[in-house]
Amino acid sequence: LPDGVMEKWMPSFIKNISILVGETIGITEEIMGLTILAAGTSIPDLITSVIVARKGLGDMAVSSSVGSNIFDITVGLPLPWLLHAFINNFTPVIVSSNGLFCAIVLLFIMLLFVILSIGACKWKMNKILGLIMFILYIVFLIVSVLLEQKTIECPVTVGSL
């Protein structure tokens, strides 16, 4: 393939295949985004973090992970929304998620637990901290999926804000 071709079609291909697989086995787009697509876009960050951590640069691994998420939230989300607004006469982007407010609150709670866990491990990256963070991620996924499937209800809905 010529240079640059794969970079242009690969994200669209992955998204479309994910939606197709999700629809085939009955998984919503929101849950696919929360699990498969989120993990897929984080693999380069994971590889980078492993490489620098093996070189003894744990601070850089953590900083890269945190910085990547901040970049995604503050640039990766608003930039496409701004482009959409400019192209579509400032029509807002509608985000439909059953438990969006609670998922955001859960994200902040998870961040607090991550900070407390790092502090409890005396600011050292070790296997126990890794296990704690992995468990926190599983809890986040479970609660987010339960919110999205309306198995548990978020007391605050987007329309009530």
Automatic annotation (TrEMBL):
Query: Where would you find the membrane-spanning parts of this chain?
Result: 31-53, 65-87, 93-116, 128-147
Which keywords accompany this UniProt record?
A: Antiport, Calcium, Calcium transport, Ion transport, Membrane, Transmembrane, Transmembrane helix, Transport
An example of a Gene Ontology BP annotation on this entry?
A: long-term synaptic potentiation
Q: Which reaction does it catalyse?
A: Ca(2+)(out) + K(+)(out) + 4 Na(+)(in) = Ca(2+)(in) + K(+)(in) + 4 Na(+)(out)
| MF-aspect GO terms | calcium channel activity; calcium, potassium:sodium antiporter activity
Query: In the UniProt record, does the keyword Transmembrane helix occur?
Result: yes
The cross-references to Pfam families, in alphabetical order and at most eight, read: Na_Ca_ex
Family stated for the protein in its record: Belongs to the Ca(2+):cation antiporter (CaCA) (TC 2.A.19) family. SLC24A subfamily.
- This chain belongs to the protein called Sodium/calcium exchanger membrane region domain-containing protein
User: Which organism encodes this protein?
Assistant: Scyliorhinus torazame
